[in-house]
Amino acid sequence: MSEEKKSEPLFSKKNKALITNPLNTINPVTIQVLGICSALAVTVQMDNAIIMSIAVTAVMIIGNVTVSLMRNIIPSKIRIIVQLVIIAALVIIVDQVLKAYVYDVAKKLSIFVGLIITNCIIMGRLEAFALGNKSWASALDGLGNGIGYGLVLIVVAFFKEVFGSGTLTIPGLGKLTLIPESFYDMGYMDNGLMLLPPSSLFIVAIYIWVQKARNPELIED
Amino acid sequence: MTIDRDSNVYTIFFAAVMVVLVGGLLAFIASSLKPLQKSNETNEKMQNILQAIGLEEMRELQRDEAGTIFKDFVKRRITINYKGEILSDKNATDAIDPQDKLDAFNIDLRKEYSRFVKPIMSKNKGNDAAMKEALSSSEDIHFPIFVCENNGETFYVLSASGKGLWDDIWGYIGLSSDFTTINGTVFDHKGETAGLGSKINEAYWEDQFVGKIIAENGEFVPLEVKKPGNDLNKHQVDGISGATFTGVGVDEMLSRSMEVYYDFFKNNSEFKSAI
């Protein structure tokens, strides 16, 4: 990315691409294969996946902007540890605020909050983008990558929860039963494997297959 | 910029300033949000205790309401030790003083479990008699009892804490006035796998315990969490598929603490007539 001119509109074509590209052509999970471990762990229920996506997006936007604003004063020798401190501090703040104001959400997230710190997408974007770009572009980049990450998580969670538990838990709507009782009476059974981490790998793999089949330019030789 | 960003002096200076700033910021945020977090936790504990009684009208109880109606239901708060000696006995009219470490409401079972119970258990692994001996001689292990009343009926809410697959699990068990039949339970966990072990705090699992008994002919019988699909007797409940270790944890913590409670009720002159 080159330096932008002052007069560039806020949502120029280039800036829009910062949001849309991570959804497909440079998706952090399926194309760059980053953040896979959290995609495996938090996708058993839809609500966890959605809350995790929002939390990661928020941390990534604020982290990107912070690092971008500091990019000219961060000593290059210790830049990784500086980024880590910024991410960790943000995650702790998010956790504390959630615990004080939305206690139920905080309880749901509990261990996943720690996972945000180790999510390599965040560190990757700070290092690859925010260190060399202005803050507005960095914010958009954080938003785009957060949505790209969330998209995969939500797709995976959908299949895991529907076929693993027969339900769909959506924040605000509660637990919806998708597979009717009569199916179970006829001998249908939930697939226990879908609840375990390996099934996420299968779903992510199928996601990549579909994605590459639709975008032949993504196929490497 | 005139400063050399690669010099050691600048790097050390930057690191020092950053640590102080971030540390200060976090300390400030943590201490200013502490009262709100504390009251959330207190209200949640009250909510859990009230729901563990097993009354239908408590099912939808909100956290904030629990704080206000707690005193209407919980008439006595008793703390006993492993040997069944009463260490603290408070009435509903006695306010909960956060400084009073022996008040049943202030007993932090999760902390006691990880700090005192777990070391004893791992040291005496495989030797039940020695383990019981060590547990009973410890001064630091307490068992809170909440005596609740509703429409003339008395319930006893007991607590247990242990370890699941990943982290702490704990529960509140409501006993009827015969000290034997379970009337309601509330379980919770810190970090069990979402969708598997985390199901122990869901109503369908907690409700399985209702009507189960912890004693027969005046003798304590531990509750068992079985693998799903087995036939169950009056002391057994179904585990959760895919969450074997969480089930083992619930099983262990219930056996360990319910025995102490039952022996207390059986041997204490005030309560034993009901058994």
Describe this structure in words.
With 221 residues, chain A is mainly alpha-helical. Chain A has one domain. Chain A contains nine helices and two strands, in the order H-H-H-H-H-H-H-E-E-H-H. Chain A has helices at residues 13-20, 36-41, 46-69, 79-101, 103-118, 120-128, 135-165, 181-185, 197-214, and strands at residues 167-170, 174-177. Chain A has a two-stranded antiparallel ribbon with strand order 1-2. In chain A, a hairpin with a 3-residue loop joins strand 1 and strand 2 (174-177). In chain A, 38% of the residues are buried. A six-stranded antiparallel beta sheet of chain B has the order 2-1-3-4-5-6, with helices on both faces. In chain B, helix 1 crosses helix 2. The A-B interface holds A 41-42, 44-45, 48, 72-78, 81-82, 85-86, 89, 92-93, 96-97, 99-101, 103, 110-111, 160-161, 164-165, 192, 195-196 and B 1, 5-6, 10-11, 14-15, 18-19, 22, 25-26, 29-30, 33, 36-37, 40, 44, 63, 166-167, 190-191, 193-196, 241-242.
DSSP strand count of chain A: 2
Arithmetic mean of pLDDT of chain B: 88
Helix content of chain A: 55-70%
SSE order of chain B, as H and E? HHEEHHEEEEHEEEEH
Low-confidence stretches of chain A: 1-5
What is the straight-line distance between the termini of chain A? Answer: 26 Å
Strand element count of chain B: 10
Overall body shape of chain B:
globular
Question: What's the arrangement of secondary structure elements?
Answer:
The complex is a heterodimer of chains A (221) and B (275).
Chain A: H1 13-20, H2 36-41, H3 46-69, H4 79-101, H5 103-118, H6 120-128, H7 135-165, E1 167-170, E2 174-177, H8 181-185, H9 197-214
Antiparallel strand pairs in A: 1-2
Chain B: H1 8-52, H2 63-73, E1 74-81, E2 86-91, H3 109-123, H4 128-137, E3 142-150, E4 153-163, E5 168-175, E6 182-189, H5 203-207, E7 215-216, E8 219-220, E9 224-226, E10 236-238, H6 244-267
Parallel strand pairs in B: 9-10
Antiparallel strand pairs in B: 1-2, 1-3, 3-4, 4-5, 5-6, 7-8
Helix pairs in contact in B: 1-2
